[in-house]
């Protein structure tokens, strides 16, 4: 009995710990039994409710599964139907395409030719400077070149008219407003005269057409004056025939022409040696000019003296005449010595600085050779440092080498001609003095012979 009571007490304590819903623990076993039974009834009801709810959810899931299977079946049937429709349409499309090919016949070949030529003419017309006059034709050519359908009759006629129009404007001179980009980057809309497909001029200058921007650009440097002077006259008299230089290569030769260096740039390529050569050439030419003018003055005085028996001052021939007239003795050797002394004294004055002209003419080619050696040294140094992959790195040294040689020859050849001219002039004057002196000696000798007879 005591053991039973102990067990009841333990169960009571456990129930008290587990069930927190009751306010107080049962007082005896009967109350405990009633409590356990009531709790069992409650739990049984809850379990039945749960089972009922589970069975209800199971039925719902089954119904949903059935609906999903029905939808899947419908979708599968619809997919099969669409596949059959697609296959039927694809077959019909193939048949229609073949029918179109058969019925079109040579029109298909014509379509290919039109698309090909439209693409080619699109590139040609886009690069043409006359594109600024007809900007709307680019859309037509793009459509014909990229279209996958047969062109209409109107489109073919428009294509033909476009080609004919291009042929006509290619042989005409026309003026149209266009945007011109000047060297400093400024843009302005002005009248541009188009010379067919060759060149374009604006504001008295040559301009080039840039297809990427559809604008005209002023040349970095205009051609020579004898070419550009005709541009203004041509623009001012468009109604009459006027001479004008055109570039048949559509500006290629003109662009290369303006890239060629000027005389100043060519001289600058010669470097310091080139300037030294030109300086020597200028000095030599100046000396030759001074010498020639001096010899002209002396020659004029001697010609005046030849017409007069009276000795004139500041005149070598006058000194010879004066020495002859002042000679009173009978010694012929004294007269010869006196006349020779006058000739020898005036010859250096006549030939003064003439030899320096020849010196400059001889040194100029040597300086050119020096510049050539220096330029080649620079070229080989560039090859050593950078190799031969980029010719521009060697162009400076080669230009200096060739330009200095050219400048040396350019200076030497005229100086040689000037030296020959001045030297011949001086020799003629000295020869005149010698001839007059010999004449006076012969006359005096003849006078002595008559006196002895």
Provide structural commentary.
The protein is α+β, with helices and mostly antiparallel strands and 453 residues long. It has helices at residues 2-18, 29-104, 106-127, 137-146, 153-169, 225-236, 252-259, 263-269, 271-306, 316-326, 332-350, 354-386, 392-452, and strands at 173-181, 187-195, 199-202, 205-210, 215-218. It has a 5-stranded mixed beta barrel. A hairpin with a 5-residue loop joins strand 1 and strand 2. Helix 3 (106-127) packs parallel to helix 5 (153-169). It is elongated, with a radius of gyration of 58 Å. The model is unreliable at 1-23 (pLDDT under 50).
Level of helix content? Answer: over 70%
Strand order of the largest sheet: 1-2-3-4-5
DSSP strand count: 5
Mean pLDDT: 80
Secondary structure layout plus pairing:
Layout: H1 2-18, H2 29-104, H3 106-127, H4 137-146, H5 153-169, E1 173-181, E2 187-195, E3 199-202, E4 205-210, E5 215-218, H6 225-236, H7 252-259, H8 263-269, H9 271-306, H10 316-326, H11 332-350, H12 354-386, H13 392-452
Parallel strand pairs: 1-5
Antiparallel strand pairs: 1-2, 2-3, 3-4, 4-5
Helix pairs in contact: 3-4, 3-5, 4-5, 9-12, 9-13, 10-11, 10-13, 11-13, 12-13
């Amino acid at each position: 009995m005591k053991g039973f009571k102990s067990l009841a007490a333990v169960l009571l304590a456990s129930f008290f710990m587990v069930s927190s819903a009751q306010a107080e623990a049962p007082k005896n076993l009967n109350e405990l039994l009633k409590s356990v039974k009531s709790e069992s009834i409650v739990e049984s009801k809850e379990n039945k409710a749960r089972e009922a709810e589970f069975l209800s959810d199971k039925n719902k899931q089954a119904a949903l599964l059935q609906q999903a299977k029905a939808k899947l079946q419908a979708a599968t049937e619809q997919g099969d139907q669409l596949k059959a429709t697609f296959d039927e349409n694809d077959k019909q499309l193939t048949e229609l395409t073949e029918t179109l090919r058969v019925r079109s016949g040579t029109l298909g070949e014509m379509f290919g030719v039109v698309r090909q030529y439209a693409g080619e003419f699109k590139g040609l017309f886009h690069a043409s400077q006359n594109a600024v006059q007809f900007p709307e034709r680019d859309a037509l050519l793009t459509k014909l070149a990229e279209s996958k359908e047969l062109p209409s009759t109107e489109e073919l006629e428009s294509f033909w008219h476009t080609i004919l129009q291009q042929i006509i404007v290619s042989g005409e001179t026309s003026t149209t407003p266009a945007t011109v980009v000047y060297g400093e980057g400024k843009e302005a809309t002005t009248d541009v005269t188009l010379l067919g497909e060759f060149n374009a001029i604006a504001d008295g200058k040559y301009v080039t057409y840039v297809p990427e921007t559809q604008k005209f650009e002023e040349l970095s440097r205009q051609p020579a004056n004898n070419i550009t002077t005709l541009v203004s006259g041509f623009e001012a008299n468009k109604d009459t025939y006027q001479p004008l230089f055109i570039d048949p290569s559509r500006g290629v030769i003109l662009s290369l022409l303006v890239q060629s260096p000027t005389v100043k740039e060519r001289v600058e390529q010669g470097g310091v040696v080139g300037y030294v050569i030109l300086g020597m050439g200028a000095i030599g030419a100046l000396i030759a000019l001074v010498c020639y003018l001096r010899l002209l003055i002396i020659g004029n005085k001697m010609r005046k003296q030849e017409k007069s028996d009276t000795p004139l001052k500041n005149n070598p021939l006058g000194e010879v005449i004066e020495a002859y007239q002042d000679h009173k003795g009978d010694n012929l050797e004294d007269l010869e010595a006196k006349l020779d002394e006058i000739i020898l004294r005036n010859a250096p004055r006549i030939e003064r600085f003439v030899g320096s002209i020849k010196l400059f003419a001889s040194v100029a080619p040597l300086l050119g050779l020096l510049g050539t050696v220096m330029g080649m040294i620079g070229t080989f140094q560039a090859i050593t440092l950078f190799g031969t992959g980029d010719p521009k790195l060697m162009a400076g040294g080669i230009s200096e080498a060739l330009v200095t040689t050219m400048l040396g020859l350019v200076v030497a050849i005229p100086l040689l001609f000037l030296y020959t001219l001045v030297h011949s002039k001086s020799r003629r004057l000295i020869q005149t003095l010698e001839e007059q002196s010999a004449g006076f000696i012969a006359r005096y000798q003849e006078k002595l012979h008559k006196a002895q007879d």
